[in-house]
Amino acid sequence: MRFFRPLLRSLFITPHVPDEPARTIPPGEFSGAVRRALRAPLVVGASVSAEYATKSPARRAMGILGIEDRALTKFAKFGARAKALLPLVNYELVQRHTAVIATDVVFWDTLSWNAASTVAALQDFGARIDELAIPVVLGTAPLLKNHWFQPGLKQVNAAVREACETFENFHLLDLERIYETIRSQNGFSIGGRYYSVADVAPDALHLSNAACEFVAYEIIGVLEQALPALRHSYYL
Fold this sequence. Notes:
Mean pLDDT: 85
Radius of gyration: 17 Å
Strand content: 5-15%
Largest sheet: 5 strands, parallel
Structural class: alpha/beta
Number of strands: 7
Low-confidence stretches: 1-28, 230-236
Order of helices and strands: HHEHEHHEHEHEHEEH
Distance between the termini: 52 Å
């Protein structure tokens, strides 16, 4: 029964998302290209992107940079898998936005033994979307140490990394590495406060407020590093 509790909560409960004040970064600390990219993002993924219990990392990244989040669009669903969700993210939807933030889009795919359909969905998504020259931040899935069984983790994350190497405007948010670093350091610090490993995902599945903010800064960092390489002059 313990295995199913986080899943049941994520599928059937949508808690209130508190309106927390964001700590903003002073103008000029990050480039205008990053701010423009996060002006109207499309957020694609599962429960973290759907804002289970707290604001998503993408929305928090906007707040950190002092950007109003009214233009953010969520294309996310509790329990969604990339192999089912990505085919629905079409050219017309993406072109109305300034970036795609897919933090947790592949997580549920890692619970399958055979990830071939996920690999195909990622490649097809890249082939359809990359020509728009809109930055896509694509996350790997972390290894959850508790009762989760993720036989497809290696194959799915390899496919994410391959997509980010293959497609010019796809950029890697390596949550697998980030989680491992947090574990090796026995926690993380943000805003001058220390958080333990258990504070990352208190219910063993969904990111906490602090963890979402930590990932938000990682998203900003990925975009800051990636945007100078974009071929579309709009972002430069």
